Amino acid sequence: MNREARITYLNRVLAATSNSLLQYISVATPYVPPECEDQMEEVTRLIDEEAQQVARIVDLIEERDGVPSAGIFPFWNVDLNYLDFRFLARFAAQKQGEIVDGLERDLDNLRGDPDAFTAVGEILKEKRAHLDVLRSFAGMDQPEPEAAAEEAPAEAPAEPAGE
Q: Where are the domains of the chain?
């Protein structure tokens, strides 16, 4: 991958990170029920870590004489202001999963640039950890009820009454 292609890739990582749902939550003023305040504090920590990732990606682009281009928040953010934190946690987990999938799929594009490969690999590791946190907040770390029923051992059939 040549320098221009690496910069283009890094700008895609920048756009995905700086325009993530986590970053949008930082300005969306979600409704946080009292029982979710601790979780929101943890999400704020994730937002801060992701902001540090943005700065790191910008540095990588500029070190390669590129121009950072973060773009804008995707259209799906337009109506997310003042929504319940519990809904946003599930949606954030889904969107974070998409970002992680994309980074996992495309990380090998940076193998020719060891510094960028290492940095984006570390960012990917952090994003996986963020995904785990978001999934736990959204209850997505539990098996779906149907899946749990399928995994449960079958009960012996009941004996017919009166026989």
A: 3-65+87-143
